[in-house]
Amino acid sequence: MQTATLPTPVTQPRSAPPEPVGTGVRSFSLTINGAEYELNVAPWTTLLDALREYLDLTGTKKGCDHGQCGACTVLVDGKRINSCLTLAVMHEDHQITTIEGLADAQTGDLHPVQQAFIDHDAFQCGYCTPGQICSAVGMINEGRVKTDADIRELMSGNICRCGAYPHIVDAIRDVMQLNPTAQ
Amino acid sequence: MITYPFQYKRAGSISEAVALLAEGGKALSGGHSLIPSMKLRLNAPDALVDVGRIAELKGIRLDGNELVIGAGSTHGDIASSGLVQQHVPMFAEGAGHIGDPAVRNRGTIGGSLAHADPSADWPAMVLAADATIVVEGPSGSRSIKATDFFTSMFETALAADELITEVRVPVENGARMTYQKFSQPASRYAIVGCAVVKSADGKVRVAFSGVSDTPFRDTAVEEQLNSGQSATSVASGVSVMSDHYASEEYRRHLANVFLKRALNAVA
Questions:
Q1: Was domain B7-50 assigned CATH 3.30.43.10?
Q2: Which residue in A59, A107, B233, B265 is a FRET match for B35, CA 20 to 30 A apart?
Q3: Is B108 helix (H, G, I), strand (E, B) or coil?
């Protein structure tokens, strides 16, 4: 079992965040991976940009920035969403979980889906992987998957340019302890 | 990244949202049509009024002979609703094929209708279901028939200071219905989407998304089918779109194919 190095939660934006442009900067807090983060950002800052550019939570990736590739998938109140298609300010009072928050905070043990992705070599370049893993965790929460075909359909929002799909399905099937021959 | 400034206002109730919209700007619900269009600068409102937390816009209920879907219901809410599956199953079927699960967790029926993308799925479904779209504005609420709602590409009968509050769908005993689409493989927008409702007396209503710049009820085809003829005039009298996904000729062909599939599904 590998262990993850957990990021140290910061309670303020990093030393030199991008300067908000224009007027109307808002101050609010977001709850991410159980920690509270204070933000001073313009309202047009997407949740994805807030994570990456203001909070140093760069595990969540920007792919298409238009909601088609799934690289930016995070969990909000347990549901998977595209963080590029939502404004940070819309998520005050929500529980946000990113790839950095999936491992066990006490022991550092990886989340079973993270471990399965390593065990099954379910990536090549790895850029889509945080989104794939968050999406898989969200999908497992939804409780509708019974077959490999279900996995493929319900993971269809997460595109892998390297084409690691067979191993991604293997990893998820393994975590869910599904029968590979189930129809 | 959105590259220009706007104001953000959050409404706690429908009346507050209407008051804020009167100051200008656009309503923001799930944001899954509006935010991408702002990133592409197809839209550049000075202000967004966040209606995503308004409890009155949520929920799905039966009211007499109508299924009432709150405008803030997500596609996922609708796909998984037992009431929808039982009374207007086409809406659950169609909602379950919008985008992907992450999109269905945020995008709302009201937002999609207000945006009126010609390739969105809801327009064909609300047209074929003969639904009514209820909106609230400064002078109160009014009901707009789906057939009067879509006026042009991204244009609707909704005024700038009005908010869609609910979609009312007649529940028809014994009706069979389906929504069949040919999807763009990445976005899953409809290159062609065909909704068919067949009443208990065998009469059909047919509507298309994705075919023309405005979603439409195909009344010429309905007349043919309802008088026992075969459908030879699909999308006659409308201008059929042509783009790098599908030429006009191919779209017209797909419209015929997906109408046939839909008719087979309700046979």
A1: yes
A2: A59
A3: strand
Tell me whether A65 touches chain B (CB under 8 Å): yes
A68-106: pLDDT as tens digits? 999 999 999 999 999 999 999 999 999 999 999 999 999
Tokens of B103: 């999109």
The yes or no reply on domain B176-266 and CATH 3.30.390.50 is yes
Decide if A26 touches B, using CB distance below 8 A: yes
Residue A67: phi and psi, rounded to 5, are 75, 20
Q: Which CATH class is domain B55-170?
A: alpha beta
Query: What pLDDT, on the 0 to 100 scale, is given for residue B3?
Result: 82
Q: What's the DSSP call for residue A159?
A: -
pLDDT tens digits, one per residue of A42-68: 999 999 999 999 999 999 999 999 999
Is pLDDT at A1 greater than 60 in this prediction? no
CB pairs under 8 A between A and B: 86
Q: What is the ipTM of this complex?
A: 0.92
Is the whole model's pTM more than 0.90, yes or no?
yes
CB contact A139 to B (< 8 Å): yes
Find, among B167, B165, B111, B155, the residue nearest to B135 by Cα: B165
Strands (E), A42-146: 73-76, 79-82, 95-97
User: Residue A150's closest chain B neighbor by CA?
Assistant: B101
Q: Do A80 and B101 touch (CB under 8 A)?
A: yes
Please name each of the domains of chain A with its CATH number.
26-101 (3.10.20.30), 112-178 (1.10.150.120)
β pairing state of B60-63 and B47-50: unpaired
Place of tokens 């998984």: B80
Contacting residues of B for A24, CB less than 8 Å apart: 5-8
Check CB contact under 8 Å for A81 and B36: no
